[in-house]
Structure formats: structure tokens, C-alpha cells
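Archive maintenance. Older records in this collection stored only the sequence; we are now back-filling the structure field for every entry so that each record is complete. The fields below show one back-filled record exactly as it appears after the update. Entries are processed alphabetically, and VanW family protein is next in the queue.

ARCHIVE ENTRY
Title: VanW family protein
Organism field: Cyanobium gracile UHCC 0139
Length field: 251
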Amino acid sequence: MRQEIRHYWRLWNDRRDGMRFDRSAGDLAVGNAAVGNLGQRPSIGLVQPIMPSDFFENKRANIRRGAALLDRGLIGAHKAWSFWHRVGRPHAANGFLPGRNIVRGKLVALSGGGLCQLSSMVYHLALLGGLTVLERHPHSLDIYEEEQRFTPLGADATVVWGFKDLRLHNPHPFPVAFGFRVEPNRLIGELRSDGDLTACDVAFVRLELERPWVRVNTMVNQRLLVSTLYEQRQGLQVSPADPPPGTPGPS
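Back-filled structure field:
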């Protein structure tokens, strides 16, 4: 209920502020069957492993469901885009299963767990494609050993229904579109366009601090975009207890 209230509160604020999100779809997106068929249009691509973890099959199913909802979604020239406006509420009626999420410093099972890998890929593709990031939330904890990472530290973007969204703006004079393919152990994504889409130089520069803290500076074309502070908690295990009622979701 708390998440639903927050969701409608955000909708009201968006309407008040005149914020509109592009929900159009078209054949510019490559579609699952052709994501790996590069060269037909300018494209920027990423490949990530889907690493074994708690609720692995559910995580893969949630990523596949989310990818299907995002695929073929256009972002028109000079228009805005929202992860949750595309995916919808991540509950069972929308095809999502329980998976692990970070909630108040603990790993717990919540519906839609695993979607953060998909939103993180979208964020990384957006940086590479020169899109403007209107809203992005990093994870508060870094729980991965180096060999367990599916994306560089600093390239993450957590999403929580009603509370945390990933929102982008297309500054280009042409539409762009995301395309995805989910294989048994990897996620493949592209950002495509009919226009001249040249990849930006994106680097995630790690600055080691006193344990357990680490800072990552996200550099785009040698300019600082954002600096993110993480608490490192490698080896964190899923809590057997359910999250308390009214919890806002992953952190």
C-alpha cells in the first residue's frame, strides 16, 4: 500500500510539473530475434553475465519479463523515458516472481528481484549513447566480489516501485530504442538509432577509501558526471525473515 501511495504521488507530481514520458513503440528497436545482428543501423551494445545467485531461476525469469516489456520501446527526439512507466508494477499479476533485493542493509526476497541488472544495463547504455540521466539511484551496498560482478561498480541503477525510478531524456534530433535478448546465462542489450549514434567514452574510476567505503567517479568523455559512495558488504546472505510491512524496497 505504501508503494502504491508513493507511485500515485509521483504521478501527481509529474502531471503538475508537466513531465511526460514517451511510451511509443516501433520497428526501430531490433527485437529479441535480431539483437545480435549488428550493422544494419548504428548501435551501441553491452553483454553481461547473469551470475548464479539466490533465486537464480526467478531472477532470470524476471530479467526476461522486464526485457520483453522494454524491448521495442522508442525514445523520441527530445523526449523523456521512465523505467517504471515502461515495465509497470513488478508483481505476480504482471508476470514477476520473488527474487533477492537489498532492503535496509539486508538481502530479502521480494517480487521482481533481479530487475536491477536490467535497469543497470539501461543506465550504462544510456551513458554510452549520450542520453541525459534525469533520475538514477545507486545501490547503497556493494555486495559483490570482483569475480561475481555483472557490471562495473558505479554502473548500477537500482529501481523501487513508487520510490526509485530510472529516468532518461533523449537529447538527440532522432529517436533511439533499446533492444534486448536474454540467453540462459547472459543478458545482451543494444541502444539503436537511425541517426549518427557514436559511443561516448565512459569510465568508472574507483577511489579506495578506508574500509568498508569505496567511491566511484563516473567519467563521460573525461568529464565527471557523478560521484557515488558505496559501503562494501561482500558475502551478504539472504535473510530468512520477511521485510517489515511498509518497507520501501531495495536500497
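Update note: The radius of gyration is 17 Å. The chain has one domain: 2-199.
Entry marked complete.
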